[in-house]
Amino acid sequence: MRLARLLEQAHLAASGNTDAQVTGFAIDHRKVAPGTVFGAFQGARVDGEDFIAEAVAAGAIAVVTRPEAQVSGAVHIADSLPRRAFARLAAQFFAPFPRHIVAVTGTNGKTSTVEMTRQIWRMAGERAASIGTLGVTTPDESVSTGLTTPDIVTFLANLSGLAREGVTHIAYEASSHGLSQYRNEGVRPQAVAFTNLSRDHLDYHAGMDDYFAAKMRLFDEVAADGGTAVVWCGNEAGDWSARAVEHANNRGLTVMTVGERGETIRLVDREATQLGQQLTIEYAGETRKLSLPLIGAYQAANALTAVGLALASGTEASRVWDAVSRLQPVRGRLERAVITQSGAPIYVDYAHTPDAIEAAIAALRPHVDDRLITVVGAGGDRDHGKRGPMGRVAAEGSDIVIVTDDNPRGEDPATIRAAVMAGAGDGAREIGDRRAAIAAAIAEAGPGDIVLIAGKGHELGQIIGSGESMTVLPFDDVEIARECAAEGVTL
Ligand SMILES: CC(=O)N[C@H]1[C@@H](OP(=O)(O)OP(=O)(O)OC[C@H]2O[C@@H](n3ccc(=O)[nH]c3=O)[C@H](O)[C@@H]2O)O[C@H](CO)[C@@H](O)[C@@H]1O[C@H](C)C(=O)N[C@@H](C)C(=O)N[C@H](CCC(=O)O)C(=O)O
Ligand SMILES: Nc1ncnc2c1ncn2[C@@H]1O[C@H](COP(=O)(O)OP(=O)(O)OP(=O)(O)O)[C@@H](O)[C@H]1O
Ligand SMILES: N[C@H](CCC[C@H](N)C(=O)O)C(=O)O
Ligand SMILES: [Mg+2]
After folding, report:
1. Is CATH 3.90.190.20 correct for 335-487?
2. Topology annotation, domain 3-91
3. CA dist 383 → 146, 274, 387 (Å)
4. Residuewise pLDDT in 10s, the chain (491 residues)
5. Is 151 touching ligand 3 by the criterion CB < 6 Å?
6. Rounded to whole angstroms, how far apart are CA atoms 295 and 457?
7. Measured in angstroms, how far is the CA atom of residue 488 from the centroid of ligand 2?
8. 147 in ligand 1 pocket by Cβ < 6 Å?
9. CA angle at 58 for the pair 54 and 60, rounded to the nearest 5°
10. N vs C: which end of the chain shows fewer Cβ within 10 Å?
11. Omega of the bond prior to 96 within 30 degrees of 0, cis?
């Protein structure tokens, strides 16, 4: 496709000869080939503008970058928001995309909600896929991208490939990093959802308002004109939900509120059953009972938000409601890894924020007869301020807390543990080695007890070191829990 045509379709201007054929797009100069359009962006680690000359030498025919940047030997597509301009141009190249696209933002519940939306669509007979922390999940396979919201080129290329495979419905996760870096621009979701907001990523965002503003770009700018916004409004939902509704109204989106305080899909009652829960719902003037085969208020919230998205995408309501009772557990979200020889169930959950730990504990509590034993740790090179609160909520909700390591990355693991321990208090035990911590929890658990292993969920490795010296040691909480339970470890 000719550059001039792409520019015209994206409503962008550039000086110079725009006759050349475009062969691809890249944001990393090492991926530039002859005919590539290169996006040169100032990053958190390095300045992409420093690689412009190398990109041109490698065959870049155009560079999307700030007006102030120096480009010679290629067309300079100058824009004060180069990431956005690049995305818009790339979208013209990679189109067409699947017809039905929905997106989810919020601190917790994005992966679960996109995965449940994908499942609902599939059960309703649609060709559906999801993109998020678990990777790109299609009817046939799941491939990791390494990030929750992949970079813009990976994102658009995947959407395009999926469309070619016949996928018509996509649900993707919009992380705050992804939104502030314009990683999923260029396609306009017909429905967007907001799950909740609580402390996370304050190493990257200046404060909670800034973090929320990054998330609200999904409502303010990314969503399709005239689209729908699904907002979780549960009993626990604070001001952030109300503010998300305000953003949706200001943008002219159709608002669907969901939850105990929701108006579109009202959760009237929730009763735990042995293997899941029964939900009583009011929707479109009718009351219906749903049996959800998953435990915990948080999973009900995500399932109903997914219902909202599926309805907003035009899937037939009766098929959507039918699918709820057949939802499968999401990998690493309250996943029961094993039941120990003494009869204690061991759950693995991806809770890595204070709010998520609270939600996971609240989900398990009704099922605990005797003691809840929680294994918890916080990631390195991530928000330091969440560590103490993570320890505190774990200690408040559990009978025994074991503080351990979770992806120390470039930091000293003992320092991270000390911050979690400071919140967890004197009663908590500290066992740095994660396998030993899991073994200790399992050895401790007797009949009537439940063990919660928080933080890693579906992850398959322990990340140690950073940059050149980064290594990922194979580590799967579910597998380790099974091994420890099989060994019948004693201390
Ligand atoms: C802080 C952050 O979000 N960083 C991501 C971001 O980096 P950046 O734009 O700041 O890039 P940079 O590394 O400073 O480089 C600047 C530019 O120069 C280019 N470059 C760089 C080196 C080179 O040799 N040549 C070159 O052209 C880069 O491609 C980039 O365009 O864009 C990069 C390319 O897409 C990502 O790999 C990188 O993710 C890092 C590895 C990361 O750890 N990200 C995490 C924090 C993240 O994004 N997490 C979110 C949220 C998860 C959640 O919600 O919990 C996610 O969506 O996964
Ligand atoms: N609706 C919710 N409310 C509160 N906590 C939740 C909710 N949904 C999930 N959680 C908690 O957050 C953890 C992560 O859930 P999930 O992976 O769905 O979130 P996410 O938003 O995709 O996270 P990430 O930002 O890391 O991609 C779960 O294991 C659970 O402990
Ligand atoms: N997407 C999250 C994952 C956190 C998972 C936890 N295991 C950790 O390493 O902190 C993040 O990058 O903050
Ligand atoms: Mg996720």
Report:
1. yes
2. 3.40.1390
3. 19, 37, 8
4. 899 999 999 999 998 889 999 999 999 999 999 999 999 999 999 999 999 999 999 999 999 999 999 999 999 999 999 999 999 999 999 999 999 999 999 999 999 999 999 999 999 999 999 999 999 999 888 898 888 889 999 999 999 999 999 999 999 999 999 999 999 889 999 999 999 998 888 888 899 999 999 999 999 999 999 999 999 999 887 799 999 999 999 999 999 999 999 999 999 999 998 789 999 999 999 999 999 999 999 999 999 999 999 999 999 999 999 999 999 999 999 999 999 999 999 999 999 999 999 999 999 999 999 999 999 999 999 999 999 999 999 999 999 999 999 999 999 999 999 999 999 999 999 999 999 999 999 999 999 999 999 999 999 999 999 999 999 999 999 999 999 999 875 44
5. no
6. 16
7. 31
8. yes
9. 90
10. C
11. yes
Residue nearest ligand 3's atom 9 by CA: 379
Instruction: Return the residue whose CA atom lies nearest to atom 2 of ligand 3.
Output: 352
Q: Where are the domains of the chain?
A: 3-91, 95-324, 335-487
Q: Which CATH number fits domain 95-324: 3.75.10.10, 3.40.1190.10, 3.40.50.2000, 3.40.50.1820?
A: 3.40.1190.10
- Residue 304: name the closest of 285, 282, 272 by CA: 282
Q: What's the CA-to-centroid distance between 321 and ligand 2, angstroms? A: 23
Does 315 sit in the ligand 3 pocket, CB within 6 Å?
no
ipTM score: 0.95
Identify the residue whose C-alpha is closest to ligand 2 atom 23.
Answer: 108
Rounded to the nearest angstrom, the distance between the alpha carbon of 363 and the centre of ligand 2 is: 13
Assigned token pair, 171: 């649900």
Task: Say yes or no: CB of residue 93 within 6 Å of ligand 1.
Answer: no
Query: Among all ligands shown, which has an atom nearest to the Cα of 453?
Result: 2
Q: Which of 1, 178, 172 is nearest to 96 (CA)?
A: 1
Q: Token digits for 209?
A: 């308002």
Nearest ligand 2 atom to the CA of 350 is 29
Q: Is 401 exposed, middle or buried (0-12, 13-18, 19+ CB in 10 A)?
A: buried
Distance from the alpha carbon of residue 226 to the mean position of ligand 3, in angstroms: 34
